[in-house]
């Protein structure tokens, strides 16, 4: 009686944890030369994203020889929309072409303890300012009615006010990070990093859409 052996392989994509942790003191953000919501069953580190599939050129099972994968994974794309004079579609390489800043962030995760991460990327303010928000140029405080809605590829969302990031007001050093602990995020997409937050509640991975909304004209 003949017997056949079936082999199957699974590849597990890497993810960096998600968290609603607390930062230990105000982290420093400095200029530097030229990282997705929690997945079930993982730790609570806010930098974690959905698990990635097999790497390019990696076979999904045992093979008698090398297997070529000719399907290239497209670079993640970020779309800037809303009340902007110059809406744009950007990739991580586009963001790398802007002035880079570094943030050392500590998350004190409820389920996985203290996590330290290093991010680099352009300031969110600089990226959005280049897109030309539709402020009234005559009224300096007109920008205070603008909100910024950030959406991640994993379905997470975060909301900021323009006043938080504007140098004339809050000047929070919020980053669109393009590297996480030295690893590039070309395929995963940029991460929204708020270094001053007590926890990583608004940290968003794989940022895919940022909408600038100035529709709040009445406060009644």
Automatic annotation (TrEMBL):
Domain Oxidoreductase molybdopterin-binding: 77-187
Domain of life from the UniProt record: Bacteria
Region (Disordered): 1-70
Record protein name field: Oxidoreductase molybdopterin-binding domain-containing protein
Organism: Streptomyces rishiriensis
């Amino acid at each position: 009686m003949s017997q056949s052996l079936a082999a199957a392989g699974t590849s597990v994509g890497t993810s960096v944890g998600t968290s609603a942790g607390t930062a230990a003191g105000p982290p420093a953000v400095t200029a530097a030369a030229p990282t997705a919501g929690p997945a079930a069953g993982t730790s609570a580190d806010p930098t974690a994203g959905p698990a990635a599939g097999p790497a390019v050129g990696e076979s999904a099972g045992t093979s008698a020889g090398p297997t070529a994968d000719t399907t290239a994974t497209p670079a993640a794309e970020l779309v800037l929309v809303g009340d902007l004079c110059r809406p744009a579609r950007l990739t991580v390489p586009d963001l790398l072409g802007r002035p880079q800043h570094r943030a050392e962030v500590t998350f004190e995760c409820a389920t996985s303890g203290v996590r330290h991460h290093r991010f680099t990327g352009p300031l969110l303010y600089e990226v959005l300012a280049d897109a030309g928000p539709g402020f009234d140029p005559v009224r300096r405080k007109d920008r205070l009615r603008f909100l910024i809605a950030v959406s991640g590829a994993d379905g997470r969302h975060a909301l900021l006010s323009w006043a938080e990031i504007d140098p004339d007001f809050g000047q929070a050093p919020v980053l669109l990070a393009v590297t996480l602990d030295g690893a590039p995020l070309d395929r995963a997409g940029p991460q929204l990093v708020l270094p001053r937050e007590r926890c990583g509640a608004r940290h968003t991975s794989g940022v895919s859409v940022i909408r600038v909304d100035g529709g709040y004209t009445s406060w009644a």
